[in-house]
Amino acid sequence: MSLMRKVLLAMSTSTFLREQATKRAFIRRSVSAFMPGETVEDALAAAATLKPQRINTILTRLGEGVTRIDEAEQVTQHYLDVLDKVQAAGLDAQISVKPTQLGSIASVKRPGASVMCPSGSTWRTPRTSIPR
């Protein structure tokens, strides 16, 4: 792993930097167009306001560097919950899944396990099908 990647990952998990960023008005203003809030509910509310304008939304969970199976399983469950909420709200929204959050790093993989497995023309998860 490159030095810059290590530094950026360390910064991304820093409680101090997170608290500073969320307190600074200039940072909040600069990211508000791209990140309308800090919760799934904030993101879904923003997607709902864009729907009448026929603007599609891409939802993602920030963060990478998953190093444990339980973390990858938590992220997987988060994405499945978000898909359920998107469907329940009738939104035209997609999710952006980062393989590094789902345990694609070799040290996180569990032999014989897969988070999503290809099947024909779709990727199947326990509760939904996502077109490729």
Structure description:
The radius of gyration is 17 Å and the shape is globular. Mean pLDDT is 76; it is low at 112-132. It has helices at 3-12, 15-23, 25-31, 40-50, 69-89; strands spanning 57-60, 93-96, 117-119, 122-124, 129-131. By secondary structure, the chain is α+β, with helices and mostly antiparallel strands. It contains five helices and five strands, in the order ααααβαββββ. A hairpin with a 2-residue loop joins strand 3 (117-119) and strand 4 (122-124). It folds into two domains: 1-34, no CATH class; 37-131, no CATH class. The strands form two sheets. The chain has a three-stranded antiparallel β-sheet, with no helix packed on it. The two termini are 29 Å apart.
List keywords for this structure.
single chain; 132 residues; alpha+beta; three-stranded antiparallel beta sheet; 5 helices; 44% helix; globular
Give the integer mean of the pLDDT values.
76
Helix content: 40-55%
Structural class category: alpha+beta
What integer value in Å does the Rg equal?
A: 17 Å
DSSP summary, beta strand count: 5
Would you identify the regions where 5 or more consecutive residues have pLDDT less than 50? 112-132
Per DSSP, the total helix count is 5
Characterize the overall form.
Answer: globular
Mind summarizing the main beta sheet?
3 strands, antiparallel
In what range is the share of β-strand residues?
Answer: 5-15%
Can you write the helix and strand succession as a string?
Answer: HHHHEHEEEE
Overall structural domain count: 2
Trace the largest sheet across and list its strands.
3-4-5
Distance between the termini: 29 Å
